[in-house]
Amino acid sequence: MEIQKARITKIFLGFINSIKQFFSTYAIIFAILALGIVLSFASDTFLTVKNIVNVLRQISMVAIMAVGSYFVMVSGGIDASLGAIVGFSSIVCAVLIVQLGLTPLVAITITLLCGGIAGLINGITTSRFSIPPLIATIGLKMVLVGVTYIICKGYTISGVPDEILFFGRGYLANIKWMPIPVVIMVATALIANFVSQRTRFGRFLYAIGGSAEAAHLSGIRYKFLQMWTYVIAGVLSAVAGIIITGRLASGNAGSGDGWEFDAIIACVIGGVSTTGGRGRVFGVILGTVMMGVLNNGMTLLDINSYFQQVASGLVLMIAIGFDIYSVNSKSKAIRTKGK
């Protein structure tokens, strides 16, 4: 009897500790709930199913990009070219179908390949040539923006078929609260979480982000793995580009303008460290939800768009400041313990 009570107590305590660990890891949930409560009182339409689905659809593309940015940042890098890859992918997809007459499947495959190649260029310049990630990716961003506008001559490319529209406007099994972009976002998050938490590749990325030198001494090919994080980010940005092409029913060069910063903000407020080695995929998704809810709330309250940019910038500054403070506090605690 006593043994049985001890087992029940152990299971109960384990369950409580798991809940504590979950909310400790994803403390941003409380911020989202608090913001949601405030907005639900401030606006009658905020808590409607239609608005919630709209928010999820709007954040889905940035969330998919943010997952790619997560892999890069966890390994100690940063990618400022993702928004340009979105616009480039949107134009490439539309040109391949509308102007060159390729089938949607072939066009999507080539578009994803182009996104991967763009990421590969980032990976090679940063890992093989040791160019600082911010400089290298800004350089590629400028190149891609120029190439994109050369291809489309500054015009949108309309006339994309229903197969592409489905990715931006469709619903899973015609269920109105399950938009295809949201389904893709959820699937991307689940796969990315499995890769990051259950595979050697994911564990190695955390080790590289913690200390690339220590990872190298442990036999990890850190430059090769870092290169692949940029490829993943490029492919996922191309996915976002295809979705936005479907939403707008046209290829648009400016589709992803500034989205790379939204992705970075989502990562940082979702718990991804700017110095690498820390963060979770679901935290990134929650960070994107937080930004989406904030922007949606300000829109519903008819707040000027310039003030919305100010709010986004302040959120980023606070999140980075908190991250740096957290890293410094942990380093200080380790040094103190060592003494």
Report the radius of gyration as a whole number of Å: 21 Å
Strand fraction: under 5%
- Low-confidence runs (pLDDT<50, min 5 residues)? none
Quick one: how many beta strands?
Answer: 2
Structure description:
- The protein is built from 14 helices and 2 strands; from the N terminus they run H-H-H-H-H-H-E-H-H-H-H-H-E-H-H-H.
- With 339 residues, the protein is mainly alpha-helical.
- The protein has a two-stranded antiparallel sheet with strand order 1-2.
- Helix 12 (259-269) packs across helix 14.
- The longest helix has 34 residues, at 305-338.
- The radius of gyration is 21 Å and the shape is globular.
For the structure shown, list the relevant keywords.
mainly alpha; 339 residues; 1% strand; two-stranded antiparallel sheet; 14 helices
List the helices and strands and how they pair.
Layout: H1 2-25, H2 28-42, H3 49-74, H4 82-99, H5 104-128, H6 133-152, E1 157-158, H7 162-169, H8 180-198, H9 200-210, H10 212-217, H11 222-248, E2 250-251, H12 259-269, H13 281-300, H14 305-338
Summed up, what is this model?
This protein is an all-alpha fold and 339 residues long.
